[in-house]
Amino acid sequence: MAASTAAVQAGVGLDHSLLEALEAAREFRSRRQRLQEEQIGRLAAELPLHQIRVHFLFADAIGPVEIDELSRSLGAGIEALPDPADVSV
Q1: How far apart (Å, rounded) are the C-alpha atoms in residues 69 and 55?
Q2: Residue 73: exposed, middle, or buried by beta-carbon count in 10 A (0-12, 13-18, 19+)?
């Protein structure tokens, strides 16, 4: 959704320069997401291994709390992998 449309729906009035900046940020994030999805698909097709995905952190910096959160997410992903003894190659 365009930044101007979102602002109207939220009942917020924003000046033109702020709307342009928000729209540029939205477009950048959208391109990055498409690129990420393409690369995940490419890796899945070219590398026949299970993928572990950790959730996205909404933080402006990574410190001990965020590292702990990422570690828990990675650990859960590892635990969810099939047992290598049960997987035939």
Answers
A1: 9
A2: middle
Q: What is the pTM of this model?
A: 0.61
DSSP string, 9-20: HHT----HHHHH
What is the three-class DSSP state of 78?
A: helix
Render pLDDT for 42-54 as a digit per residue (tens, 0 to 9): 999 999 888 898 8
Do 41 and 77 lie in a common domain? no
Tell whether the torsion through CA atoms of 20, 21, 27 and 28 is positive or negative.
Answer: positive
Distance CA 33, CA 37 (A): 6
4 and 32 in a single domain? The answer is: yes
> For residue 3, what are the contacts with CB-CB under 8 A and spacing of at least 6?
14, 19, 22, 23, 26
Looking at the fold, whether 30 and 59 belong to one and the same domain comes out as no
Residue 72's domain comprises 50-81
